[in-house]
Amino acid sequence: MNIWMYLLLFLSVIVSGLSILFVEISSKNLKLILSFSGAYLFAISVLHLIPEIYLSKTPNVGIYILIGFFAQILLEFFSEGIEHGHIHLHKHQNHAFPYAMMIGLSIHSFLEGMPLANLMTDSHSSLLTGIVMHNIPIAMALMTMLMQSHIDKSRAILWLVVFASITPIGTLTSYAIGENLIGNFSVYFDRIMAVVIGIFLHISTTILFESTENHRFNFIKFVIILLGAGFALFSVV
Length: 237
Prior knowledge:
By secondary structure, the chain is an all-alpha fold. It is built from 8 helices and no strands. The chain has one domain.
């Protein structure tokens, strides 16, 4: 097990989420951060994760990619799209914690963490970076939503800690299954990775499609998207 990986997954969420309490991040800047992370997720999926999963020759691997893609659509009925920066305030539920959203977001994060249990190939470093970059704007959006909903600050931080723990728990659970129950993680690793790729494709394309408002060209967002894709390209060369 790589302790540093678990710490990185956990602390990146904590630090980025708590930053909302000290630095005001506008909706525009949050969208730019999301655009960068979305472009990176899409690029590593196309450049590295998809080619590698097909090289594994796992039967019907494309079906599992589709399962992940459509599973994310279902999860967003609960999470309300906070994975790609949507912040929904329910005025009639002021001070009430949105448990359904947290459940959907937690399932999403748990699944993302599962393939990291076998950190033995180059794709996993890119996957780890992608998940960290993806979780940073989610943590910011989550804390922004909680603060705007006037939920007690200490309670909001507690839920941030819960969210920060979910992806590492997914990784640890998958590691335990592979080591203790199956004995050979590769038996089901490729299928799990394919599901996560499907999730990445849905999240990243949704972010990129929403990155232009009213179908207008935005030069700054375009540059940010190119930077995200370029970062992914150089990270896998």
